[in-house]
Amino acid sequence: MSHRVLPISLPEYRSFLNCLWDGSIKRLGLAVSGGVDSMALAYLTHKFLDEERRLYGTKNTLQIHAFIIDHGVRPGSEAEAAAVAEILKGYGFSTDVLPLLWEPGELSAGGFETRARAARYRTLAKACVQNKVFKLLLAHHADDQAETVMMRLISGSRFDGLAGMKAVAGIPECHGLYGAKRVDVWRPLLAIGKEQLIATCEQNNVEWFEDYTNHDATYTRRNAIRQLLSASPPRLPKALQRDSLVCISRRAEIRNHTIKEAAFRLRVHCKVSLSARTGTLHFSLPPNHLSLWRDATDSVRMRLLIDIAEMASPSPRVEARQMLTVFRRVFSAGEVDQIPTFTSGGLMWTYRGQQKWTLDREPFMAQRKEQVTELVVVEHDWSEWKLWDGRWWIRVQTPAWVKRCYVRVLQDKDMRVVKAMAVKRGIKGQLSEILKELKMGIRFTVPVVFWKGKGEEAEAKVELEAGEVLVSLPTVGLDFVDRVRYQVRFKG
tRNA(Ile)-lysidine/2-thiocytidine synthase N-terminal domain spans which residues (predicted)? Predict the structure, then answer.
């Protein structure tokens, strides 16, 4: 006999939300697609907000800013997004409709599911930063978690990757988007099955909008897995059904958390220093680390090395498979006199003896040397922050006649102009000290800022190449042009 599925009660939802929210944050975002999952989340949040106002009054009450995503994939999605916005306004939420924009042919091209996910998160992150909303509620639930774990099993993921989605995490897919690191996503419904969300909407007469593409098993891989997992009667063995997959994700998450905590405790014994001017990182293990860390597993030691490498690497994430050579050499350093310099994780690893290491960015490949990052300048204002080489955030403010600046890596061919300009500006001594700091191994891994075209100051400038006017070596504070301001921040 089938049992009746109960809707989520307000006390239940409050308990889920209180696991994430301590009451100190007064502004939450809410991501809404218009489907049953996000509309149930919106309704529950609305009822929670009503109760808060009744208990504590309107002063200093939690504010909700809803972001309605219009994927623009099917006819009528724009009208549906507008209808959802009206419903949410009735809940007392601030609302913004965020349409996703696609290039011609992009909807039919392969890999659309992955691109749509990235576009959705990046659009949400930009809206959150613009509206100063740094905690964003998402409606992911247990069925979504099971789908994620199944997809990763099929892809051959290691056990640590089977943790799936976290209840609290940084917003994904936003590398290179300034301010996105401040945005966290909260998933209060991650332990709840989809059937309870449907029951919640049905019981409370909450309207939702069905996206028929979600029911097409041929449309995306996730759709195919969703149909397989939701089949009745079940078509999969119990070990691969929803509850079992969710259990796997919890076990993997507990293991990952335990490893990270243990790696953090190891790092307390290490000396780590990073130069924001050059990007060089120095670290050393304690002399007695073999005995001090005798109980630490290989997974914990590997996590320690990954955490250190990610501080300086141009890559947003360093994978364990990239670090196998590092692991062997770092933890055998006391057994050999010399270790040749090697590259891994986007870095050059140099052993200095006595358990001391130096990490520098690995040399640029030839094709990367000419790649430029464009900084578009708004008149009388700063350009947007841009992440250069995955390491430095840079923005500039220029004279009115300069509309764009560019950033690329300093190259050997630039040095004649750099030295000539230093002599001309009377900063030859400063340049000499900086070049000592920028030893040859890292000199040609730092950025140079320039603009194209001579503008109104043509007679005073020396060109790097045809049309390239040298502006600065920003990370080391060496300036070659007056009336240009810049700000530089190392990642992290």
Answer: 29-227
